[in-house]
Specification:
Elements: H1 4-23, H2 38-59, H3 64-68, E1 74-77, H4 79-86, H5 90-103, E2 119-120, H6 126-129, E3 132-135
Parallel strand pairs: 1-3
Antiparallel strand pairs: 1-2
Helix pairs in contact: 1-2, 4-5
Length: about 140
C-alpha cells in the first residue's frame, strides 16, 4: 500500500464485502477472525482499480498505454522483457521504466542500474493490471 488512504479504503471495502456475505448468507462460520479471506480478494481488486484508474491514469495519462500493454504479463520484469512487450529499443525502454519508477507503479528494490535490475510492480497495482505472480523469462 502506498499511503494510509489505500489501507483505509481497503478495510472499508473488506467490511462492505463481508457485510454482503452475511446478508446473502454466503459467509462461513465465524471463528476468531473478524473477516473471512474472500472479502480481501475482492476488496483489493476494487482498491487496485480505483488507484490505477482514478489516480495513476488520471494524473499520468502518458503511462497508460505502457501499463495497458503489460496486462496479463509477469509481475517481475527486466529491461529485455519490457523492450519486447513494448516493441521499443533499449533507450526508449529505459526512459519508460524511469518514468514508471518516478510515478511509483514500478519498483527497483535492488537499486541496480535499470539495464540489470529486476523490476517489480507493487502488489497494489497487480490485480487491476491482471499481472501474474512470477518473473518474466530472460
Amino acid at each position: 500500500m502506498n499511503a494510509p488512504r489505500e489501507l483505509i479504503h481497503l478495510f472499508q471495502e473488506v467490511r462492505n464485502e463481508q457485510l454482503k456475505r452475511f446478508e446473502t448468507r454466503t459467509a462461513s462460520e465465524v471463528d476468531e477472525s473478524i473477516f473471512e479471506q474472500a472479502p480481501f480478494k475482492s476488496a483489493i481488486k476494487i482498491v487496485s482499480d480505483m488507484r490505477l484508474k482514478a489516480t495513476i491514469f488520471a494524473e499520468y495519462p502518458d503511462v497508460r498505454p505502457w501499463l495497458e500493454a503489460l496486462r496479463l504479463e509477469k509481475a517481475t520484469q527486466h529491461i529485455e522483457s519490457l523492450m519486447s512487450i513494448w516493441s521499443v529499443d533499449r533507450v526508449e525502454a529505459e526512459n519508460r521504466i524511469q518514468r514508471l519508477l518516478d510515478v511509483g507503479v514500478l519498483s527497483n528494490e535492488s537499486n541496480a542500474p535499470i539495464r540489470t535490475a529486476e523490476l517489480n510492480f507493487p502488489f497494489l497495482y497487480r490485480p487491476s493490471l491482471g499481472l501474474i505472480q512470477g518473473r518474466a523469462p530472460k
